Amino acid sequence: MNNYLIPANTKSGQLILGIFKPFDLILLGTGVLITLIFLMTFPMSETWQVIIVVIPGLLSAFLVIPVPNYHNILTIIIEAYTFFTNRRNYIWKGWCVKDVKDVQSSK
After folding, report:
1. How distant is the alpha carbon of residue 52 from its chain centre?
2. What is the pLDDT of residue 10?
3. How much is the pTM?
4. In angstroms, what CA-CA distances link 7 with 4, 13, 101?
5. CA–CA separation, 70 vs 62, rounded Å?
6. For residues 86 and 79, what is the distance between their CA atoms, to the nearest angstrom?
7. How far is CA 11 from CA 3, 21, 91, 93, 101, in A?
């Protein structure tokens, strides 16, 4: 028979808990640690102070949220940055490249 069953998400076996890369956990841990340090050091008398103190933890958690077709939000941001900053001048080398020269030479 020789039928092989390959799981659809084979990369998830290489991830921690099937979701996170080591860098993702370091990023999340750093954001939460900074938030905890801010919570212990800054006064929380106003709502805007609480929001500012909690921002590092929320931001790092937002960046490591899993997203379909990508790994996480951080991956989407990196892909978008490389798309907009790299060269997007595509050179045509298709199967009808000789036809284009013939049309130009007949004019």
Report:
1. 24
2. 60
3. 0.65
4. 10, 10, 47
5. 14
6. 11
7. 21, 11, 33, 34, 46
Q: Which secondary structure element, helix H or strand E, spans residue 106, and what is its range?
A: helix 97-106
Task: Provide the token pair at 18.
Answer: 């099937």
Backbone dihedral region for residue 66 (phi beyond 0: left; psi -120 to 50: alpha; all else: beta): beta
Give the burial class of 46: count Cβ atoms within 10 A of its Cβ; 0-12 exposed, 13-18 middle, 19 or more buried: exposed
Q: What is the residue type of 6? A: I
Six token digits for residue 26:
């370091």
Residue 85: both structure tokens together: 């900053």
User: Which residue is it, tokens 């989407």?
Assistant: 76
**pLDDT per 10-residue tile (average), the chain, 107 residues:** 58 72 92 95 91 95 88 90 85 62 50
Model pLDDT, residue 63? 93
